[in-house]
Write a structure and sequence with these properties.
It contains 14 helices and eight strands. By secondary structure, it is of the alpha/beta class. The protein has a six-stranded mixed β-sheet with strand order 1-2-3-6-7-8, sandwiched between helices. The protein has a two-stranded parallel ribbon with strand order 4-5. The longest helix is centred in the N-terminal third of the chain and has 27 residues.
Length: 361
């Protein structure tokens, strides 16, 4: 009997190795239009290792095609790939931490058939993580002719169209830069919050933590999404433009630059969150059963900036009111608080200068 068991175990290992070899052969045949191929050999191997570790062998073919456009690239597009890549990265990172249970695509809301992307338990805290990678305006690397500025509002500012046009005319008439208007994506964030809220358990208690993880782009994009939360009529303010009771199961939002890593810094990316900038923002309208201890325990699986960001105060010109500084806090934190080495760690390829050389926001 022991010899039969050893033989079966050997057969399983051989089959598994054959599967992995076939899997890597599929990856080697990808065209240059596919992000996995464009990212370079280390990025491709990192994807292979993460995928094999996270997904069951019986679902490989379906998941590869549906989420990553492999092997058929006919309908390949970057945006859906980056969302799937963010999901895989978060799952792969959490899997490697000291946790007790781990499941991907788990149903925790008994009232519908929707799954959260990642569920795990650390100690007595049950964690549900929903991951979104919203489409953002393109941030191109510096190097074009002349300076280009993008004007956006910090929240929902009355008569903003007239004010932005007036400012655009003044800047362009001076010859300082070309100016474009940026679209306010607060409705997209609202949709992300509502979608996540539907997936979280309505019976969440003191031992639950529900996170909405946003895979965003460069530093300015992180600042924009923070403004959607804390700018004028922001979703986390007292007078938000949408009822906060509709997303009170979302305990916190994590703003990250994970999409930036896949889109612009793939050759440095290891398919974990080790060097990703992670800024958790606790929902001030969250359910009353949310405990601060659960927040700290749940977030211990990542290297985050929750507490240092809370205590950070931006330096600004005298008499600048708090309501002006608050929406720009994330921008100031990245450029004023982070050390140069940290900025290089989180943003190894600078699409535009950060720190003291940062452009005006």
């Amino acid at each position: 009997m022991p010899s039969i068991l050893r033989l079966n175990s050997l057969c399983i290992r051989i089959i598994s190795q054959m599967d992995q070899n076939h899997f890597r052969t599929l990856l080697s045949r990808l065209s240059d239009k596919h992000a996995v191929r464009r990212g370079g050999p280390a990025y491709l191997e990192g994807f292979a290792s993460a995928f094999i570790a996270i997904h069951d062998r019986k679902n490989w073919e379906e998941t590869l095609q549906k989420k990553f456009f492999i092997p058929d690239e006919t309908r390949y597009r970057d945006d859906p790939f980056y969302e799937s890549a963010c999901e895989l990265t978060v799952a792969n990172h959490i899997r490697q931490q000291s946790i007790q249970e781990f499941v991907v695509d788990k149903r925790v809301n008994c009232k519908n058939k929707k799954d959260v992307d990642v569920w795990f338990r650390i100690g007595s805290t049950q964690m549900a993580v929903e991951i979104k990678c919203p489409v953002e305006p393109k941030t191109e690397p510096a190097g074009g002719e002349g300076m280009q500025l993008m004007l956006k509002t910090a929240g929902r500012v009355p008569d903003h169209t007239h004010q932005l046009r007036d400012l655009k005319d003044k800047i362009e008439s001076s010859g300082a830069a070309k100016v474009a208007f940026g679209k306010n994506k607060d409705l997209t964030l609202k949709d992300c919050l509502l979608s996540a809220n539907e997936k979280f358990s309505p019976n969440s208690s003191v031992d639950n933590l529900n996170l909405l993880f946003l895979g965003l782009g460069y530093a300015g994009n992180i600042s924009d999404w923070y403004m959607h939360l804390h700018g004028e009529q922001g979703l986390f303010t007292a007078d938000g433009f949408y009822p906060s009771s509709d997303f009170d199961l979302v305990d916190a939002v994590i703003l990250s630059n994970l999409r930036y890593w896949h889109e612009h810094a793939a050759r440095y990316h290891d398919w974990t969150l080790r060097n990703v900038f992670l800024l958790p923002i606790v929902n001030p309208h969250a359910r009353s059963s949310l405990m601060s201890d659960s927040v700290l325990v749940g977030l211990s699986v990542i290297d985050h900036h929750l507490q240092t960001f809370r205590s950070f105060r931006a330096s600004a010109a005298p008499n600048v009111p708090e309501y002006v500084l608050t929406p720009l806090k994330a921008n100031h934190y990245i450029n004023q608080h982070l050390s140069e080495s940290d900025r290089n760690r989180y943003f190894p390829i600078q699409l535009y200068p950060l720190g003291k050389a940062a452009p005006p926001h």
